[in-house]
Structures are given as structure tokens and as C-alpha cells.
């Protein structure tokens, strides 16, 4: 077992840390308060090559791999979960084209995404279902040389910015279909924004699809293969959320270490109190465990292994760790932690999001248990 990062990975990690410190951290509070999507940072990440990290150069990627993606997400997320989420949601659409697209689709759809020229999103959640994609009601019907899509999607992240949307529909009653739909097509309408407590500024919104035409060349995989595609790409989505949870917890620990040394109680720094030290030690232990579980998941993906099971382990554990660590950070900060002027309050809200989006913890437990019990 080699737990060391190689030189290119270390260089990428350093570069992402610098980008996060210079360009993302100074914007984090404003993105959260204004709840406005940071178009400029999405573009900057494209220019840096971060939007195509795992994919081959012939499709516009940088061939750096999933561990590299994880390292970059971790650095950016320590500054802002919203900005990191832009990168990871885009990767989910890319992953679908890379794993299930034909050669022409990879050239036409993956390349502009990986080059950062277009932004990808995903839409499976609907008003009546998030955890049970088999209950999707948005319909795709054959029409001429393509399809017509009708329905509504709930909680579509980056709705005002996405150009190519990985869209899941029910196909004429039989199974699900997966499409890459161009959001400039007629019939696409962003309705109400979803004002969520965390991940603010991600542009999450309700999207209406009224007679949206999608050419048959934009259907991924076979007719009715959508459910399989969703299961597969969600493992990359879970990897992304797992590392976001680790990074948010790490940011909370670092703020707590600083605060505990500055703030005094009973005539000495908080850091001298055994209860504060207990909190700091608990935080660090959970973060390290979550980090290595997540890194290993990314490593397995780089080896070409399916990570459907491991990504659920990582997301479940890391999101629980993030919520607990953020709670402890708040405790270390006392009432000042609750103030909107300090970042701990944002981390506390963002940490909770990791237990919710891309599959709630109950669903992760279902996936893990069914893997354990398979064939038993
Ligand atoms: C900021 C944000 C961004 C998002 N971005 C996207 C996006 O880009 N694209 C997209 O498609 N979706 C997105 N989502 C949606 C998100 O993935 C879903 O909300 C999530 O999967 C949960 O679905 P739900 O809210 O419908 O919960 P429900 O399915 O209604 O579940 C509610 C509760 O019921 C219980 N429950 C439900 N099913 C089970 C079960 N099988 N076993 C045990 N308990 C169960 C759980 O306690 C669960 O928390 C986003 C959400 C947020 C908040």
C-alpha cells in the first residue's frame, strides 16, 4: 500500500490551494449572502483545466484522474462548497457521456464540457421523488428523428448556467432514458429558484420542460438504459460530495484551532481547556478517517473499478463526520460561531447539505446493506 501522492498530484494540489486562497476564499461569503451563481469562477476553473481532470486529452480532458479531481475539489471546497459543487456536478454529466456515449457523442458533447467551454448539469429529482428515480414521471416520446420531452425537474443545480443537462425521463412507460439536452432548446424554462439553507449561490432551481425537442443522437446508451446510467454516474456524484464533506470539516477544524488559541476563558486560551482539546481531537480523527476512505474510493476509480459500494460508504461516513465536526466547531466558537459575519455559520449549514443532496443517508445505507447481503 502506498499512501503517498505522486509529484503531478502534489503540484495540482498546490495549484488548486493557491487558486482557492486567491480567487475563491475572498468570494465565499458574498456568494453565500447574495445567493448568486459565480459565473466567473466557473469559467476560471475551465481555463485552469479543472473541468476535465479525469478524461482523455482526445476529449478535451487533462488525463489527471479521479484522485486528482478529488484533491482539487478538496482544496476549492475548503474555501467554498458552492464553487467546488460546480466542478463536481459538471463532472457527473461528463461521466455519463464518457461511460455511455458513443465515439461521436464523446467528441461532440464531452469535449466542450471537459475543455470548459460548456457547463454540464444533471436532472433526475422531481417534485414527487428524489430518492426513487423509478418513480420519475417526466416523459420522453419519440417524434420524427428524435424525442419530445415534457415534465418538471426539481432542485436542478446551476440551472442558470448549465448548457448541457443530463436528463432522465420515463420512456413511453418502459424504463428510463438518459439524454444530454441542450438547455438552449425551445421549451426549457427555469422557474422558481430553490432557496436552500446551504450551498447557496449554486443556482439550484425548478426547471420546466414543455415539448423540449431532443435529437436521437443525444440519447445516451440504449432505449430504457437510463436507470443503469443513473446508478453508475451517481457513484461519481457521491465521491464529489464525500470530499466536499471532508473539506468542509477540515475548514471548520482550522477555524476552531485558530479561535481556540485566540479566545480566552478563565484567564487562558480556550485551547488549554480539556473540553476544547477533546473537541479538536474528535474533529481531526473523524476528518482523517473520512479523507482516507474518500481518497481510496477515488483511487479505486483510477484503477478502473466500479465504486458504487465504496462511494456510498464514503458519502455516508464523510457527510456524518462533516455534520458532527461542524457542530463541534460551532461549540468551540460559542455564540460568535452563530454570527453571519463568521464563516463557521456557513460551514455548519453547508455541512448539513452533504447528508441531503446526491442521495440522502438512508439511501446510502440501503445501497451498502444490499451490497453486503448480495447472494446471502
Ligand atoms: C442544493 C441542492 C442541489 C441539488 N442538486 C440536484 C441536481 O443538480 N439534480 C438533481 O436531480 N437533484 C438535485 N438535488 C436533489 C437531491 O439529490 C434530492 O433532494 C435528494 O436525493 C433527496 O430527495 P428528496 O428531497 O426528494 O427526498 P425524499 O425522497 O422525499 O425523502 C425524504 C426523506 O424520506 C426518507 N426516505 C425516502 N426514501 C427512503 C428510503 N428508500 N428508505 C428510507 N428512508 C427514505 C428519508 O428520511 C428522506 O430524507 C439537489 C438538492 C439540493 C438540496
Overall average residue pLDDT? 97
**Biggest sheet layout:** 8 strands, mixed
Structural class: alpha+beta
Low-confidence stretches: none
Q: How much helix is in the residues?
A: 40-55%
CATH hierarchy: architecture of the largest domain: Up-down Bundle
User: What's the CATH superfamily of the largest domain, by name?
Assistant: Butyryl-CoA Dehydrogenase, subunit A, domain 3
Total helical elements: 10
- Could you tell me which ligands this complex binds, including any ions or cofactors? flavin-adenine dinucleotide
Order of helices and strands: HHHHHEEEEEEEEHEEHHHH
Per the CATH scheme, the topology name of the largest domain is: Butyryl-CoA Dehydrogenase, subunit A, domain 3
What is the gyration radius calculated from CA atoms? Answer: 21 Å
- Counting structural domains, the number is 3
Count of strand segments? 10
- The separation of the N and C termini measures 30 Å
Explain what you see.
The chain is of the alpha+beta class. The chain folds into three domains: 108 residues, Butyryl-Coa Dehydrogenase, subunit A, domain 1; 105 residues, Butyryl-CoA Dehydrogenase, subunit A, domain 2 (Beta Barrel), CATH 2.40.110; 147 residues, Butyryl-CoA Dehydrogenase, subunit A, domain 3 (Up-down Bundle), CATH 1.20.140. It is built from ten helices and ten strands. Strands 1, 2, 3, 4, 5, 6, 7 and 8 form an eight-stranded mixed sheet that branches. Helix 7 packs antiparallel against helix 8. It starts with 6 loop residues before the first helix and ends with a helix. The mean pLDDT is 97. Flavin-adenine dinucleotide binds next to strand 1, strand 3 and helix 10.
